[in-house]
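dude i think i finally got it to work??
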Amino acid sequence: MAHSKARAADGKVTYPPGVKEISSNISKEEMVRRLKMVVKTFMDMDQDSEEEKELYLNLALHLASDFFLKHPDKDVRLLVACCLADIFRIYAPEAPYTSPDKLKDIFMFITRQLKGLEDTKSAQFNRYFYLLENIAWVKSYNICFELEDSNEIFTQLYRTLFQVINNGHNQKVHMHMVDLMSSIVCEGDSVSQELLDTVLVNLVPAHKNLNKQAYDLAKALLKRTAQAIEPYITNFFNLVLMLGKTSVSDLSEHVFDLILELYNIDSHLLLSVLPQLEFKLKSNDNDERLQVVKLLAKMFGAKDSELAAQNKPLWQCYLGRFNDIHVPIRLECVKFASHCLMNHPDLAKDLTEYLKVRSHDPEEAIRHDVIVSIVTAAKKDLALVNDALLNFVRERTLDKRWRVRKEAMMGLAQTYKKYCLQGEGGKETSNQIAWIKNKLLHIYYQNSIDDRLLVERIFAQYMVPHNLETTERMKCLYYLYATLDTNAVKALNEMWKCQNMLRHHVKDLLDLRAHTLSHNNILKTLVAFPGNLPDPGKAQDFVKKLAQVLEDDERIRDQLEALVSPACSCKQAEVCVRDITKKLGSPKQPSNPFLEMVKFLLERIAPVHIDTESISALVKQVNKSIDGTADDDDEGVPTEQAIRAGLELLKILSFTHPVSFHSAETFESLLGCLKMDDEKVAEAALQIFKNTGRKMEESFPHIKSVLLPVLQTKAKRGPPRQAKYAIHCIHAMFTHRDTHFAQIFEPLHKGLDPEDLEQLITPLTTLGHLAQLAPEQFAAPLKSLVANFIVKDLLMNDRVGTGKTTKLWVSDDEVSPETLAKIQGIKLMVRWLLGVKNNLSKSGNSTLRMLTAILHSDGDLTEQGKMGKPDMSRLRLAAASALLKLAQEPCYHEIITLEQYQLCALVINDECYQVRQGFAQKLHKGLCRLRLPLEYLAVFALCAKDPVKERRAHARQCLVKNINIRREYLKQHAAVNKLFSLLPEYVVPYAIHLLVHDPDYVKVQDIEQLKDIKESLWFILEIIMSKNENNSHAFIRKMVENIKQTKDAQAPTDAKTNEKLYTVCDVAMNIIISKSTTYSLESPKDPVLPTRFFTKPDKVRLSLPVSAPVSPCLCPKAANVLGAVNKPLSTAGKPIQSKASRMETASNDDSTSNPSSPQRSKTRYTHTHTHTHTSNPSSPQRSKTRYTHTHTHTHTSNHSSPQRSQGVCLSRSPRVSV
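look at this
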């Protein structure tokens, strides 16, 4: 070595053989040629060539001179760089260059030459690759560890390599670069922050997207050097995260992006960093917490991530952020849930409870995203979500916000279609979510038109897709209908009825336009349009514009007429919808509210499911089930259930699409159903014939000739319900119905035998319907039949005694034939009166007296004691239902006395649960149809005392629905003349009057009884006062004040009755004052009181202050009594917290009755309290079997009235009928 140094000191440069001196005096081309020979020489040398190393030492030093390092020609620089790389290889481990500055210059020079790697198509690329390969293999840059400026050299090298790497490089280039850089990290003493930044910057998303190859290079480098570089990464994050020293690096603002990338590269790089994130999750800075939550969401949710299992404290801390106070953080957590559920099903259990809480989050967006997360996972694989998560989606279908409801409904619909219709996941999966179809259809019960429209769309697209082939579509509908629950079936039926009604509205609009009626008449005819379209406020304008479009555009008019035509096929409907939409659409106006409304309308009226071909396919499907060739078992539906459901489905479709049934094949199949043993199937077939057979005589005479004898046989000897439908079929289908009716009436009339009770039921049913449909044809025989046979022979005789039983109700098949015959007798009388529709013969009065007598006697009209309690309950219900039927006809409503009305009302308090239930349903039905007068709505006030929670809740639902129906009707019809009979607020006077005459209210100032009155009043007032539209609270107050200026028209001279009236008014006033803040405002209208219930205002009383309790005999304790009563009200439908919570039969103590009032019934539950009282001479008498709340008391009789019948106090009876 000493010798070599001496030679170096000589300064004489020895060149390889054939190479002349290389200096600035030669041309560039010659210099390049000579350098290539030098490169070849060094390339061939190895480290063992000591002589050559000594020989060319000065040449090595010469090549490192500034002349070469700063030469302007790149080819010269490249060749020199290759020589220097080989020199480092040959002279390793000691380089011939000892000056630190010179070494720095040399390595910076080599680094600059590496930029040539960028152009992979360059002629010199192989030399650049040789240079890279050489320095990487030799690890030449490791010499720089001892230099002060090593960091600068390494940083520049790293930057250069990350800049030049591109997709043109092969795997070898990539490998040599990693080798070169990794040796610096692994063998060096430290990694500077600047050098670390040079690597990490390539992981930042912005840089990553610009140069994917640089990202891959950095990723490979970090994986190779994970153990060595981890402390420096940890130190960087410590400084930034824990100490907040963001100035240490320009990458501080990307710290969370870097953590994610490093975790994805190698989780070991962050072993000491992850615990710091737990600290950051609890930061007081909302934005900082949000960033950490976003980061951890990606880390936990990544497909192969095991972070949750490896770091459970961090996972639990992250879950806690689901309950963060900051909305964006909760939102981010919820969004993360879907990825977590899909990639880590094992974490679903941990997420469930937190998602449950967030599904009730006050923020709409969070509730919405909970649904999105769960549904997204469910659509990928149902096994990823448990039943609890699906139930969260189910609950949100009733969310208060439309956006959330819509997302939940659509999510369930898409899930149902994928796993139930398309069969993905198999039978077990399909059964797991079978509830979805019912739930979606139940939503049709909601009041929002948006909900109803979405259910219709879901049904057409997801439950029974309209684009299926006809046979497949009908099969899908058939088995869907067969597996729906009762409420879902009702909802689906209602949906078809609503769509059918809207089709008729559109048809009316077209007809009105054809008759060139005024625009006002068109709008008057189509008042129901707004309620059938979204945004009712704008629907009126839409109707006007639609009418104008139909007037101006004949093509649209023709298409719409074809669409609503009963003969429109499904394919034709699709064409019409497409043409109308295309015609009204405009590319220049992408957002067209009118077009959107038209689409909604077309969507509802287009018959995309049902046409003649569809009905034919559906009938064939039913026939397959009858023949036993259908796939009923595969579909999981018992054959008998499928047949019944299929006939029920055809029945409802026969109502909405009657013309679609007009085919010989369909009618012949229905004829076959009439001959089946299953009564339900035959009943459904008869109803279908009734709905669809109007033109059968003309179009299908061969069917008529076969059908008529069958109908006549059914009417004479079939089951009662089939006999009923057979009569209606004949009435609807045949022109010579009088002849056919006579052929049925005569033999049945003559063959009536009161001794053969079982054979009496069908004839009475048939005769009853004949009496209703053809009262004039059989006027004389019917009158005689009712007076002599029905009343005298049937109702007034008890032929067969029934066994004693404590039951109040039995199933239908246990009811005695005599009772069934009597019920049909009552119905026959009522149907006859409804057919006659006049009371000229006073038959209505006698019938009402008969019905009242049945109620008075608790159903045992003869009072011989032969009838059992279940039969008596049946007859009470039949009599009360008959009264309600007659009350729906104006001519009979007028002759129903107040005592009869009150006695009928008390049936809703009957001791038998089924009687109360059946009566309430009949009452509700009549009120919903706006057939029963408004005073019957007040009857529900008596339900406040029902001991069964379900009955109170049902009564409240009935009240709400009826009140809403009336308010909606008044909005659509400016029926000022009908205001008194429709305005819900007018039920208050009726309720007050009914409660005044409640047999339980016997002592005027009894606090317990007044509490019951208060509960009953609040039961109705709570619903009526829930809205204060048009200052209705003041109107109600004014009504009550006006009542206090009148007297009870039922007993105007009875001081006791009128005192009770004023006291009940005081209680009502207290409720109004305590529950309203606007009661004292001016009433918008002066109320009109019903003169049948109240006298005209008393002139003397008009001068008295109406705000104070007024009564004929002012009691000094009145204020104290009302104060005791005026305590917090229980919510309607909740149990009454008093002694009145016990149900007992009535205590029939000695009391008086009014000869003009109906006798006290024995079947009402009662509230009896400890007091002494006198009876109300004008009130209906208490039923012995009204449910009771009993306390001991005594009665003082009114000796001016006849004595009431004595009775014993019955023991408290269990609620066996509940």
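The radius of gyration is 47 Å.
im so relieved honestly
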